[in-house]
Design a protein that fits this description.
alpha+beta, 5-stranded antiparallel sheet, 28 helices, 17 strands, globular
């Protein structure tokens, strides 16, 4: 039977949280976009205009040079009716959808039907709003009451991590599903109603589609622990556990369409072949950073340019008032089942996030978990702390022992003072920056001071004034929201959409000049910004960059013995080796400043001045054609067959061949090449496909210097042909004499198999939801 009062209550809380989110992100209502576009204009070519705009937060580069450009390619591809499997603009071409961070299959991408800027704002708006709603529903199911549940919602949805990653548009959408995981699992354990299995599986799939497997794995580990713990207290049957775990597995199966290509990409990336200990260990938190539980600015803030350590993933602030009630719950609420569970999680995950202890996880070599930053597990401590704050506030309001509460309040305040004072003395002794440190703590001190005074007044008046018990919880919520609002208002950057990657004539020229040649450029912009601009480059910020692509670049730069970088790949050679690298890879356009000599600016020598012909000029930039670059695609009639990858890289590194006329293959051709002549013309190119028209008087190899990767297929005159791996990492196919049409197209290996698994998982999950009662 429908409960009208309950439905009205749900509607009210949804409107309430919607309003809070709107207040928190109020600049959106003025037509601004939540992106630090001041960084774009102030730091990155071709828009670089220093001192033209006030720079707020220099810490958020990834959002504008990587994550938004990726989202733009998704939006652009969907407009064209294409699933963007491949990114031709990044690192000589590499898988795109498989990288997960672009969130290609995340269902909330439907928001981009509103338009790109509006869709982006709405996506970020929903991160906060849904996190509030989901954590509220879970808290209410813990019987917290309205106000404690609201406190939990604020502490979870507006903590420093959730706000720190908000402008990335990805991690937060992974994390927001955690409370609803626990909600559906709890409901099923209590009621055994099959619909909760379906909702749990769907929620798991949404979190995975949002694109950060390490966070999702932590969340699933917590979910499994919660199921086992609560199921044990309820004396649940084995079949109950079985169906819950089956629901989780089916949720994972739903994402096979994404996961199978992602596993393939990871296996081909440098990250898979290298030790990830460095990444994992460096991400662990130094114990002293736990002081940020008292203030996000304990060690400075990127906005005030006094930050002394990392910020986003090492800033563990969920509100000093929720922290007060969290610790209160751990001390005084020890008999309640869920308080025990979340206390254990808070302590365990806090310890495992620390340097010296967190290495335990790496020793265990747990897949996915140990492949990224180790400190990310602290997110579970933040979440558990938020939940515990609800328990603490509820107990604080219920207890009649005024002396106990006053004593605890004094003790908490004293600990804060001692930590602040001790750190201030240490700072003075080491850096002399006591004044700046205390300035950073003044707001946290103010919040704690107002809270302490208000709480003391409440404890003395609660028995004398009837409405004190109603006013105090509202005081707690308002002060907490103000505290966390200030955190976001200080950190987040809202920008005028006129700065959203403005059109530049130099970009239009490079786009048009390379449209029929696939020519790459150098000097125009940063690697992933090229993804937004649809121009082809050699470098990448993607931590899953392909190993063979990097090895080829190392060979070209004569750096085969050097260790590869962990998280991104940039070309670092100079002079002749840089020129050789650019020539070999078909970099036909060099962009330089108006008054610069490109040979001196990029190669630190005037030796190559004669190789550059100016083809475009405006008031800021000159585009030079590199007349010695190799064609991006061509016909070849000579082949050098080698026996190993090592020999191939040696030949490339030593410039042992005339690569304008001869290709290297690691296998024997089933036919003989003869000297001939011909031409090749690009007919069409999209993110996943290329089409060429060929004329040749002899059989030949058609070569294109784009990445060879499993999933690429080729047709010559509508017949499938083999793609040869040429020049270590590029593609070549046999073409017959005469006129031919060659088509290359990419679809991840086993993608259709992944689609089948996703479809079957959905069918089985739906079957469980509909027929579960008949299976018992």
């Amino acid at each position: 039977m429908v409960n009208p009062k309950k439905n009205i209550g749900i509607l009210f809380i949804i409107i309430f949280f919607f309003s809070l989110t709107l207040i928190y992100l109020f600049p959106m209502t003025k037509g601004l976009i939540l992106l630090p576009l001041d960084l774009l204009v102030s730091n990155y070519c071709p828009w670089y205009s220093p001192a033209q705009i006030l720079l707020k937060n220099p810490y958020m580069q990834d959002s504008i040079i990587q994550l938004y450009p990726w989202k733009h390619l998704v939006f652009q591809s969907f407009q064209e009716g294409i699933i963007p499997f491949w990114n031709p603009y990044q690192h000589m071409g590499m898988p795109f959808m498989a990288g997960m961070k672009p969130m290609v299959f995340y269902p909330l991408n439907i928001l981009f039907l509103l338009g790109e800027a509006s869709g982006w704002n709405t996506l970020l708006f929903l991160q906060i709003f849904l996190a509030m709603v989901f954590s509220y529903f879970l808290s209410r199911d813990f019987k917290f009451g309205i106000v404690p549940s609201i406190l939990v919602s604020l502490a979870f949805s507006l903590n420093s991590l959730m706000i720190g990653v908000l402008e990335f548009g990805s991690e937060g959408h992974v994390l927001l599903w955690l409370p609803i995981f626990l909600f559906w699992a709890k409901k099923y354990l209590e009621k055994r109603e099959s619909k909760y299995l379906f909702f749990l599986g769907i929620s798991v799939s949404f979190s995975i589609f949002a694109g950060h497997l390490q966070y999702t794995t932590y969340m699933l580990a917590l979910l499994v622990g919660f199921i086992l713990f609560y199921g044990y207290t309820l004396k649940a049957k084995i079949t109950t556990y079985g169906f819950l775990f089956l629901s989780i597995l089916l949720g994972i199966g739903l994402t096979a369409i994404q996961l199978i290509p992602s596993m393939e990409l990871f296996s081909q990336s440098y990250r898979a072949t290298s030790s990830s200990h460095e990444v994992f260990s460096e991400g662990l938190i130094k114990p002293r950073l736990l002081f940020r539980l008292f203030s996000p600015d304990f060690f400075g803030n990127p906005v005030t340019r006094d930050l002394t350590t990392g910020y986003i993933e090492t800033s563990g602030y969920f509100g000093i008032i929720p922290l007060f009630f969290c610790v209160y719950a751990m001390i005084f609420v020890r008999k309640k089942v869920f308080a025990k569970f979340f206390t254990g999680v808070f302590i365990a995950t806090s310890l495992l996030s620390l340097k010296g202890i967190g290495q335990i996880l790496y020793v265990l070599k747990i897949p996915i978990i140990t492949s990224g930053s180790g400190g990310r597990i602290f997110f579970l401590a933040l979440f558990s702390g938020a939940i515990l704050s609800g328990f603490g506030l509820l107990e604080f309001l219920k207890t009649k022992k005024r002396k106990k509460n006053i004593l605890y309040l004094c003790l908490f305040t004293l600990i804060f003072i001692l930590i602040v004072g001790g750190t201030a003395i240490t700072n003075h002794q080491t850096t002399g920056s006591t004044k700046m440190f205390l300035q950073n703590l003044r707001f946290a001190s103010l919040i704690l001071g107002v809270f302490s005074v208000g709480t003391t007044i409440y404890l003395f008046l609660r028995k004398k004034i009837a409405w004190a018990d109603n006013l105090f919880p509202l005081f707690i919520v308002a002060l907490t929201f103000f505290d966390l609002f200030r955190l976001g208002y200080r950190f987040l950057t809202f920008s005028n959409t006129k700065f959203l990657y403005p059109d530049m004539n130099v970009v239009k020229f490079v786009q048009e000049a390379s449209r029929t040649t696939l020519a790459r450029n150098y000097g125009l912009t940063e690697p992933e910004l090229a993804t937004y601009l649809n121009v082809q480059t050699l470098e990448t910020y993607n931590p899953l960059y392909l190993l063979r692509s990097a090895e080829l670049l190392q060979a070209l730069q004569a750096k085969l013995e050097e260790k590869l970088p962990v998280n991104k790949y940039f070309i670092t050679s100079e002079k002749e080796r840089l020129k050789y690298t650019l020539d070999f890879l078909g970099v036909s356009y060099i962009v330089a400043g108006k008054d610069s000599n490109p040979s001196i600016e990029y190669f630190h020598t005037d030796r190559f001045q004669g190789d550059f012909t100016p083809t475009y000029q405006d008031d800021r930039y000159v585009v030079y054609e590199n007349t010695t670059s190799y064609p991006r695609f061509d016909l070849y009639y000579q082949v050098r067959e080698v026996k190993s990858d090592t020999e191939t890289l040696r030949l490339i590194s030593q410039k042992s061949l005339n690569f304008r006329e001869e290709l290297i293959l690691n296998e024997t051709l089933p036919f003989t090449l003869q000297e001939g002549s011909g031409s090749a013309k690009l007919l069409a190119s999209t993110v996943n496909k290329q089409k060429f028209a060929i004329k040749t008087n002899k059989p030949a190899l058609f070569y294109v210097s784009d990445t060879f990767f499993p999933g690429w297929k080729a047709k010559v005159n509508q017949k499938f042909v083999k793609i040869y791996q040429a020049n270590y990492n590029f593609r070549a196919v046999e073409v017959p004499a005469g006129e031919s049409v060659i088509e290359f197209f990419y679809q991840p290996s086993h993608f259709l198999f992944g689609c089948l698994i996703s479809f079957l998982s959905l069918i089985i999950l739906t079957f469980l939801a509909v027929w579960r009662k008949k299976l018992i």
